[in-house]
Amino acid sequence: MNAAKQLISGKKTNGTSRFLPSLFKPRKPKKHSSRPVYGLAFFIFVLAALSVLGGVQFRPQTILFVAGEIATQDVTADQNLLVEDTVSTLAKRKQVAELQPPVFDLSLTPIEHLQSRVAEIFTTIDAPESDNSDPDQLRWQISEALNTEISATTVKDWQQGIFRKTMREDVLPWLVERLISGVTADKTLLLQYRHGIVIRDLTTETETIRLELEGIPDIKDLRLDLANYIKGPLKLPLHMRRSITALLTPLLSPTLTLNREATNQRIKMATESIDPVYNHIKKGEIIVRQGERVTEEDQMQLQTLLSHKRQTVFPMRIAGLFIVSLMLGGGLAFAKPGRRISDVKNKDLYFTGLLLLLFGIGAKMLMLANGSLIDQAPTEMRGELLPLLFPVSGGMGLVAMIFGFKRCSVTSLILSFMCAVMTGGGMWLFLFYFIGSMLYVLLVKRAQTRSDIALSIFPHIAGLIFTWMGVAMFQRFEASQIWLGCLYVLGNGLLSLLVQFAVSPLIEMVFSYTTRFRLMELMNLEQPMLQELMLEAPGTYHHSLIVANMVEAGAKSIGANSLLCKVAALYHDMGKLSKPEYFIENQGRAKNPHDKIAPSMSTLVISTHVKRGVEMARQHRLGDEIADIIEQHHGTSLIRYFFNKAKEAGDNPREEDYSYPGPKPQTREAAIVMLADAVEASSRVLADPTPSRIRGHIDTIIKTIFAEGQLDESELTLRDLHTLSDSFHRILTGIFHRRIEYPDDKKDKSGSAKKGEDKQETKQGQKNGASKDSKDSKDTKDTKETPAASSSEAKDSLSASGSDKKTSNPLQ
Question: How far is CA 809 from each of CA 476, 659, 682, rounded to the nearest angstrom?
């Protein structure tokens, strides 16, 4: 079982005793990066601004054509409307008003008035002073009371007892009975109410509907009936009948009277209870066509459409958009498992916010164009299908070049939602934007070169058309609309590709993002920086090439970003260009300059190459990802060789002064570069590097780095370390492969003797190598340090090996 398997299984072997206890040691907390306060504030501001923009109606007002005019353009309803048909509503209410029966009050007051006036006349006649007075004076007084001329003969009849008896016992009861049943003033006016009347008895407060109005008598009928009654059933003489008629005719009044106030109130209540008559206008329906004469109904519909557009700001819509977008944006905080929003950088939020802002404004402008500029286009080219042209997929292609798949999913949700809202689309448009953008994200993620991006237009357009067919059938569009939508979708794919190629270089330059295509450019060995490294520091250049091959194989084996690892490995030691002669791989046979300076100064020179490498990376705009890996590829490891050298010199050094400034690797890619750098540098000192020795050496290096806690802040697991060990072993075994010994055709006379000496030296070297390998397998004081004392011991820390002196460091 090799060392990596022993590491995972937990079995103790030589060198493992240091590793296992570290599993139980409390680990130091991670150094959290500064929280992206400004980026988060900008992102929330963008969401608020887009919410306000989505809740404000900027579309130009619809042109109002007056009835009789010729429409100069088509007017299409942009929403579902209910337009009140005032003509039909008035006709319906008029019909209800006509059917509403009038209210007639049945009052007993006229009866009481009749009885009281008759009693007053009799009282006046029976007054004592009337016997002695002038008869003409009495007649005049009664005539004034009745407001009619009364003859002297009539007054005499009224004074007779038989007349009064007839009045009290026969005439008045019959007359009261007729009046109680209801008598109107004019029968001809009553007959105009063909649908009946409502008789409201004021005494009993009850109402009766009378549909048959011909049976209701009026005052004229009552007088005629009275004359027939006193002539027929009563058989009174003529002078008596005249006297009765003369007394009662002026006093008769109708008991049924029209109550106009109550009637109007009931008509008003009935008409108000009638709902208006509405005409349904569907969204997209053409209200007025160009060249046609506008009717009154068309004008009424246009006015209704305008009345719904007077409100331009919708506060509730703004609040709702902000809340929904804020909830969707919260997904950015959990784009990686176990991470919080503090792991999102300011520039990430700046880029995401700016992308949302630009695409949101663009979608709003498209909606305005759909309502104004596109009005000049043919009718079939306008409407709700125009938003299919908007290249949301192109924006998500830019995001896919930078972020991971999970963060792309969250960004696609927000972007698709905002663009669908801005363009006035519904759920079908949101689905089209989201599915199309996620499809493009997959295509961009799989592309390795810019030509791959260009070729991805074909599967992208095919996917967009397939998605459009699905949402079109879901939305039940007509066949003509589906074919027109396919043309728009084709334009969407072309625009997305243009956005991808036009904007991606700007994104790389402005935000210092290192995209896959930028990494491909940096990987070219003809880059000026790599050429300078090859000329000025050839040993470092060769070391970087080997490390690049190792990290590429290792990253692919564990699913990390192999391209980023390879490019970072090529540039990870570029800081050595400032003082290449101070690093052993570049010295050759020259003297070691570290022999003339103190260990502390040597440590400063060695550790400075990390800082200088970061500065050069930012100066040449390699990107933050590569700069971070350069800064972290040594972590906080101890430069052990010069630390021990200072101790041997009698100093009392502190480990902090002889360590790299760090930080420790924060990502898997940075940790892979650290491991490969240390393994490759230390493997140069292996004598007779057989596959088994290489395997043990790699496992020892990885275990030591892990035990020192350098991998605590990365995301590497024990399984990843085992896989990386296998990958490194495969690469190094290929580099240190055995070669056959070629025969020498030119032999001198002493060749045979010399050959014997060479064989003897070879045996001695193999013996020494075996002895050295046995020392590498255990911790002894002779070595003074672990075999994996970081790459600084093997290539950064310089010893006397460059000047053919003996060294106590086995890695040099």
Answer: 79, 17, 11
Residue 228 one-letter amino acid: N
Query: Which residues, other chains included, contact 420 with Cβ-Cβ below 8 Å and sequence gap of 6+?
Result: 387, 426, 429, 430, 433
Of 317, 341, 316, nearest in space to 329 by CA = 341
Secondary structure element (H or E) that encloses residue 240, with its range? helix 238-248
| Nearest-angstrom CA–CA distance, 794 and 684 | 8
286 strand-pairing partners: 76
Count of helices and strands (H, E) across the chain? 34, 8
CA distances for 168 relative to 108, 117, 244, 406, 428, angstroms: 18, 13, 12, 108, 91
- Cα–chain center distance at 487: 27
Cα 652 from Cα 634, distance rounded (Å): 24
Specify whether the CB–CB gap between 46 and 411 falls below 8 A: no
Q: Which two tokens stand for residue 29?
A: 């907390």
Three-class DSSP labels, 642-689: HHHHHHHCCCCCCHHHHECCCCCCCCHHHHHHHHHHHHHHHHCCCCCC
* Cα distances (angstroms) measured from residue 555 to each of 401, 442, 564: 19, 20, 9
Residue position matching structure tokens 């079982």: 1
Sorted by sequence, the CB contacts under 8 Å of residue 4 that are 6+ apart come out as 698, 699, 702, 721, 722, 725, 726
User: At a CB cut-off of 8 Å and minimum separation 6, what does 801 contact?
Assistant: 584, 592, 807, 812
214 neighbors 188 (Cβ within 8 angstroms): no
Smallest CA-to-CA distance from 187 within 202, 197, 201 is with 197
What's the sign of the alpha-carbon dihedral 141, 146, 147, 153?
negative
The CA distance from 311 to 309, in Å, is: 5
- Mention every residue, 6+ apart, whose C-beta is less than 8 A from residue 503: 394, 398
Beta partners for 200? Answer: 105, 207
3-state secondary structure 112-131: HHHHHHHHHHHHHHHCCHHH
pLDDT tens-digit series, residues 35-77: 788 999 999 999 999 999 988 876 644 567 788 888 766 777 7
- Shortest CA distance to 496 belongs to which of 431, 438, 448, 427? 438
pLDDT band (50, 70, 90) for residue 468:
very high
Is 572 in contact with 547 (CB distance < 8 Å)? yes
Dist. CA 588–CA 456, nearest whole Å: 50
The token duo for 173 is 């009861």
211 DSSP assignment: -
Q: Which amino acid is at 577?
A: L
Mean pLDDT to the nearest integer, 309-335: 82
Closest C-alpha to 443, from 430, 424, 456, 462: 456
- Pairwise CA distance, residues 505 & 528, whole Å: 20
DSSP secondary structure letter of residue 218: B
Residue by residue, DSSP assigns 330-389 as GGGGGSSTT--GGGS-HHHHHHHHHHHHHHHHHHHHHHHHHHTGGGGS-GGG-STTGGGG
Helix (H) or strand (E) holding 564: helix 562-571
pTM over 0.85: no
- pLDDT, tens digit, 9 for 90 and up, residues 798-808: 333 333 333 33
Q: What span, in angstroms and rounded, lies between the C-alpha atoms of 154 and 176?
A: 23
Q: What secondary structure letter does DSSP report for 582?
A: G
Q: How far apart are CA 714 and CA 675, in angstroms?
A: 12
Contact 179, 115 (CB under 8 A): no
Angle of the 718-735 helix axis to the 691-707 helix axis, nearest 10: 140
pLDDT band for position 457 (cuts 50, 70, 90): very high
Closest listed residue to residue 382, CA positions, set 393, 369, 391: 369
Closest CA to 34 of 343, 264, 244, 369: 343
The answer to whether the CB of 175 falls within 8 A of the CB of 244 is no
